[in-house]
Each structure stands twice: as C-alpha cells, then as structure tokens.
Amino acid sequence: MPAEASTSRPATPPLTERQEARRRRILRASAQLASRGGFDAVQMREVAESSQVALGTLYRYFPSKVHLLVATMQDQLEHMHGTLRKKPPAGDTAAERVAVTLMRAFRALQREPHLADAMVRALTFADRSVSPEVDQVSRQTTAIILDAIGLEDPGPEQLSAVRVIEHTWHSALITWLSGRASIAQVKIDIETVCRLIDLAEPSGRP
C-alpha cells in the first residue's frame, strides 16, 4: 500500500451538501484518470487539480490513493445498482437472475478495463485502514445480489451463499483482468456459483 496512507482515522460526522458535492467531484476525477491510464494514472495531486480542491483537503477525504480508488469502486457500483433497478433481470429462478445481474455488472466494467483494473488493484492492496471503504463495496455488492434475488430478509445460509458469490465475482474480475480467463469462462463460473442461491432457499420459498 502507498506510503502516504494513514493507519487509522477518527469517525467523521455526516457530510454537508457542499462537502458531498466536493466528494463527488473527487470521485469523478478519480474515475476519469483511472479510465485513461489505470492505477498508476491516479495521482493524488492530479486528482486534486482535476476536482478543484486543495491537496490537503483531498487527503482529509481520502488518506491515500487506495482509499480513493476503493471508494470509487463503491461509487461505480452504486451507479450500476441504480441502472440495474431500472431494468430488473429476467429469469425463472433466483440463481438465473443473480447470474444475469452480475454478468451485466461485469460487462459494464469490461467497457472500462483501465478503471476496472485500478479499482480491483486497490481492493487487493487495501489493508485494515481501508476497511470502511472495503465494507461499503461489499455492502453495495450484497445489495445488488439481494435485489436480483428479490429478497429483503435473507437467512444465514442465504447470506453465506451471497458471500461466496461475491468472492467468486471478485476473483473472476481479477482473473479476467490478468488475461487468465475469457468472458465465456467468467460466465460459466458466475452461473455455477449462483446455483448456491437456489440450494440455500428455504423450503416453500419460490
């Protein structure tokens, strides 16, 4: 992890409307720079200049590039979730719906390979200081999967299945980005792991 990262951060109060607007500019600048040149293209000074904030202000929002890029991934997933909600996945079973949803999300990342690589590398590099941002990514991914299932109150076995699906989706991203898996292989792996959802369904639930 880069040397500029802090080891801990105190809890911060909710952002004001102005602060939230500034944060969104920072995330947008991060995504734009990563889209052009991947992980190495995201330099904190350039992000500050592109988002029109002072460098010190940027570090107060995001203590390192890894913090910033993991938060960027959460933001991208949030936008993706909104898009997916507008066109719910088709499928007779929960497994089919989740597989369709995750492949749609995967293909959205496929359209921006440099950005996807930067975000996934940041997740890989993240240490404990980045736990809040990593947790947000996990919660957003879980929400996307549960929406596809059509489930508001999952049981322990279903949550366990969702976690395994998340891990597989993340691993599939890594292997595809590294050139070790084709899109066809990714699709097979996603469809296979999503069958866990149907296996975890309580009896009597469709």
UniProtKB/TrEMBL annotation:
<dbReference type="InterPro" id="IPR001647">
    <property type="entry name" value="HTH_TetR"/>
</dbReference>
<feature type="domain" description="HTH tetR-type">
    <location>
        <begin position="20"/>
        <end position="80"/>
    </location>
</feature>
<dbReference type="InterPro" id="IPR009057">
    <property type="entry name" value="Homeodomain-like_sf"/>
</dbReference>
<feature type="DNA-binding region" description="H-T-H motif">
    <location>
        <begin position="43"/>
        <end position="62"/>
    </location>
</feature>
<feature type="region of interest" description="Disordered">
    <location>
        <begin position="1"/>
        <end position="20"/>
    </location>
</feature>
<dbReference type="InterPro" id="IPR041642">
    <property type="entry name" value="KstR_C"/>
</dbReference>
<dbReference type="GO" id="GO:0003700">
    <property type="term" value="F:DNA-binding transcription factor activity"/>
</dbReference>
<dbReference type="Pfam" id="PF17925">
    <property type="entry name" value="TetR_C_20"/>
</dbReference>
<dbReference type="InterPro" id="IPR050109">
    <property type="entry name" value="HTH-type_TetR-like_transc_reg"/>
</dbReference>
<protein>
    <submittedName>
        <fullName>AcrR family transcriptional regulator</fullName>
    </submittedName>
</protein>
<keyword id="KW-0238">DNA-binding</keyword>
<dbReference type="Pfam" id="PF00440">
    <property type="entry name" value="TetR_N"/>
</dbReference>
<dbReference type="GO" id="GO:0000976">
    <property type="term" value="F:transcription cis-regulatory region binding"/>
</dbReference>
<feature type="compositionally biased region" description="Polar residues">
    <location>
        <begin position="1"/>
        <end position="10"/>
    </location>
</feature>
